Amino acid sequence: MTANLTRKVYDERLRTLSQGSVNVNFNAFIDIKWDDPEFAVDTSDPRWVLTSADALGAHPWYQEQPLETQIRIGIWRWAMIAKVGMQFENLLMRGALDYVFQLGNQNEEFRYLTHEITEETHHTQMFQELVNRTGVDTAGGKRWFRQLSRVLPVFGSLYPEAFFTGILAGEEPIDHLQKAALRSGEPVHPLPQRIMQIHIAEEARHISFAHEFLRLRVPRYGKARRGALSVLFPLIMRILCDVIMIPDRKSAAEVGIPAWVVKDVFWKSDAGQKMLHSLFSDVRMLAQDIGLMNKVSRPVWRALRIDGRPARFRGEPVPHTAD
């Protein structure tokens, strides 16, 4: 476990993050050229074909499909991810508002989190606008998640360490997928490309805050509370990862993806297994640093197939070889 983060250092880092939000920020309807012909959703544009950074895009079944089918599925996939992303960001905002409501005066978390909520508002706007422009009529997350999300925000104040663990569980997979797509060197349509660039730039602050929040609090918890969180941590990671990454099989069938392909991609195939292990290298590093990796929790990580080498530093690119 690393040395405990002091409140003074924590507050200084939050002030830096807050100033970053002032210096570098985006507006969904100013910084994206929605009506530029180059950004139009053209169902014949091959740049909608999924990159190999997406486990579905890397799957042999997808790669063997005709170009028009790859494009149609690619547009659907981007819309699905955007819709679930919008729902997750909405949940985050409501929980963060619940958390800041009970903060005392002179608390640096209030300013930072209200910056984050403002940025997430723009993210929900650009995600939903992307869905609207594609014409894909998706409900987003699975029904149980949409129903449960009505009550999950109360954990922002009732159980904040679990809530902000959940925030990381949602933010890390999307961030990983977007960075991998941009790093792939393969063509990406300029509309999702611009959305990803904005989201990655601002999400870096949001992920930093969640990491710092847990680094400050968790090492100070008693043995029982920290032990409970050590087991909950990988469970929350895996459950919310599946919510965000795995499409509903009925929805997938509607665009012609067989159920066996969905099962193989998430997470039976070699590419799927590699992606699942790599998604959480940063949070494995965090869990190790704050004392959440122990003889009880490590088998849980393994059983959920999200164990592996921790990142050496936040944002470390995924190696080409398996862990």
UniProtKB/TrEMBL annotation:
GO MF terms, alphabetically ordered: oxidoreductase activity
Q: What is the name attached to this protein's record?
A: Diiron oxygenase
User: What Pfam families does the record tag this protein with?
Assistant: AurF
